[in-house]
């Protein structure tokens, strides 16, 4: 099976072409940056992170997809979401790869393409539920650090700036008004051909955010040094443009 290391050449776009440059960067002396994007469901993290990664020629890592892949395995193997030891064992044994295919990124879990299978409401709930377990977080955070430690990455999730890479070169906390977040999530699911109800989508989103923000281990919160961006009524291009501007400013001030 292809590993993440050899499936991603890390491209480099010079600063003047809209990229981030390559020069030794600030305290971390990384040649390629680590960019963290956190925030609640439906804030636009995935679309923005994907677009930003493309713009910079960086690797996009969707950490939520990793919790979702584990949730799918939990469902298939019948392990109890409360069985901490079994969950830790399962999480530690997973092989997750992100494989770029044209404009898309396919997600492989233990060699199987789970890209579509992990996007159901049931898996969303289960992913949020198992992500509260300390053992699960330890295993997946370790995997995420390995994937991102060389830099040249945009990672999105709930704890990237606070736990996974507290020394990330640029951190963003993306949010949007609740109604708009629910609408985005609803349209995303409808586009995928799912038959769902708007009210139900909204309720599930509120419940999941509540859960992700209140759990004991690595709850969703804005890192102190993260830049807060409200994406309500703003286009993806606008948000990405703002991020690129902030990243460039950061590079300059770190030099
Ligand atoms: O981003 P997403 O909706 O695909 O994530 C699914 C769930 O995974 C989310 O409800 C909480 C969990 N998650 C997490 O705990 N930490 C992350 N870094 C990413 C996701």
Tell me about this structure:
This protein is α/β, with parallel strands linked by helices. The protein has a single domain, classed as Rossmann fold, CATH 3.40.50. About 45% of the residues lie in helices and about 15% in strands. It has ten helices and eight strands. It has helices spanning about 5, 45-55, 65-75, 85-95, 120-130, 135-150, 160-165, 180-190, 200-215, 235-255; strands spanning about 35-40, 60, 95-100, 105-110, 110-115, 155, 170-175, 225-230. It has a five-stranded parallel sheet with strand order 2-6-1-7-8, sandwiched between helices. A three-stranded antiparallel sheet has the order 3-4-5, with helices on one face. Helix 2 (about 45-55) crosses helix 10 (about 235-255), helix 5 (about 120-130) runs parallel beside helix 9 (about 200-215) and helix 8 packs across helix 9. The radius of gyration is 18 Å and the shape is globular. Bound molecules: 2'-deoxycytidine-5'-monophosphate.
What is the overall silhouette?
Answer: globular
The ligands bound in this entry are: 2'-deoxycytidine-5'-monophosphate
Structurally, the number of domains stands at 1
Strand order of the largest sheet: 2-6-1-7-8
Number of helices: 10
Number of strands: 8
Low-confidence stretches: 1-28
Structural class: alpha/beta
Order of helices and strands: HEHEHHEEEHHEHEHHEH
Query: Mean of residue pLDDT?
Result: 87
Strand content: 5-15%
Radius of gyration: 18 Å
Helix content: 40-55%
Distance between the termini: 40 Å
CATH architecture: 3-Layer(aba) Sandwich
Largest sheet: 5 strands, parallel
Kindly provide the name of the CATH class.
Alpha Beta
CATH superfamily: P-loop containing nucleotide triphosphate hydrolases
Enter the CATH topology name.
Answer: Rossmann fold
């Amino acid at each position: 099976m292809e590993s993440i290391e050899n499936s991603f050449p890390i491209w480099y776009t010079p600063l003047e072409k809209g990229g981030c440059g390559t020069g030794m960067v600030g305290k971390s002396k990384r040649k390629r940056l680590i960019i963290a994007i956190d925030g609640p469901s439906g804030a636009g993290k995935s679309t923005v992170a994907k677009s930003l990664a493309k713009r910079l020629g960086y690797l996009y890592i969707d950490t939520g997809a990793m919790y979702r892949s584990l949730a799918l395995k939990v469902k298939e193997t019948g392990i109890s979401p409360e069985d901490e030891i079994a969950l830790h064992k399962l999480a530690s044994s997973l092989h997750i790869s992100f494989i770029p295919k044209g404009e898309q990124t396919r997600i492989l879990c233990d060699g199987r393409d789970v890209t579509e299978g992990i996007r159901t409401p049931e898996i969303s709930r289960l992913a949020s539920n198992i992500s509260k377990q300390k053992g699960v977080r330890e295993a997946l955070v370790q995997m995420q650090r390995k994937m991102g430690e060389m830099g040249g990455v945009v990672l999105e999730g709930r704890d990237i700036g606070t736990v996974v890479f507290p020394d990330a070169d640029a951190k963003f906390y993306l949010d949007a008004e609740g109604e708009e977040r629910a609408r985005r999530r609803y349209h995303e699911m409808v586009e995928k051909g799912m038959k769902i109800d708007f009210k139900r989508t909204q309720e599930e989103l509120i419940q999941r955010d509540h859960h992700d923000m209140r759990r004991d281990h690595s709850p969703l919160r804005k890192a102190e040094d993260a830049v807060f961006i409200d994406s309500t009524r703003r286009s993806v291009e606008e948000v990405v443009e703002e991020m690129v501007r902030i990243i460039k400013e950061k590079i300059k001030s770190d030099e």
